[in-house]
Amino acid sequence: MSTETNILSLASLEYIPCIDDYGQLPENFQGRIGVYAIFDQKKILQYVGYSRDVYLSLKQHLVRQPQKCYWIKIQTIERPSRTVLENIEKAWIEENGSVPVGNKDEKEKWTQPIDAKVSMTPEENTNYENSIDEMAKTKIIKNVARRVEAEILKVLEERGLQAQVRFNPKLKEEGLLDLK
Fold first, then answer.
1. For residue 6, which of 88, 92, 81 has the smallest C-alpha distance?
2. Cross-strand pairs, 75
3. Of 41, 45, 38, nearest to 99 (Cα)?
4. 58: phi then psi, degrees, rounded to nearest 5
5. What are the Cα distances from residue 57, in Å, to 36, 91, 107, 144, 178?
6. Which terminus has fewer CB within 10 Å in the chain: N or C?
7. pLDDT of the chain along its 180 residues, tens only?
């Protein structure tokens, strides 16, 4: 059987809410291998990716791009095969007719830890630049990361998310936010 016959069309898959009526992510995809497409509130495709744990990846994307993660479509596979996953991803992007913004111009925003340093206020930036000791700089960066974390958690709370979100505390010292 060729891998092509296993590819479900994106249009044939049902939309699943990123956050269900109980404030949870789709837990039935925990530990599942698959390809997923993420859509915004208007069901416009934002990103296509694949993962060895679809649930964890969706949680990560929701934290990184909370305003762009409203709906998902997922195709799971039983055995890990990068080739199969890449073929499904490619087919879905082709079916879409254009590369989603999350797979080109905004790829880092979807796939890399959040850089809180870009959100420094002018005052925080001045304090950081004028600090002569590294401990003071680290403290400023950590506080910026905490502020950005609080902003993200507030947005997710407003969206009704009840699932626990924990950021890696060690990365905050570098001004980065990523789930633990």
1. 88
2. 35
3. 45
4. -65, -40
5. 9, 20, 14, 25, 11
6. N
7. 344 448 999 999 999 999 999 999 999 999 999 999 999 999 999 999 999 999 999 999 999 999 999 999 999 999 889 999 999 999 999 999 999 999 999 999 999 999 999 999 999 999 999 998 999 999 999 999 999 999 999 999 999 999 999 999 999 999 999 998
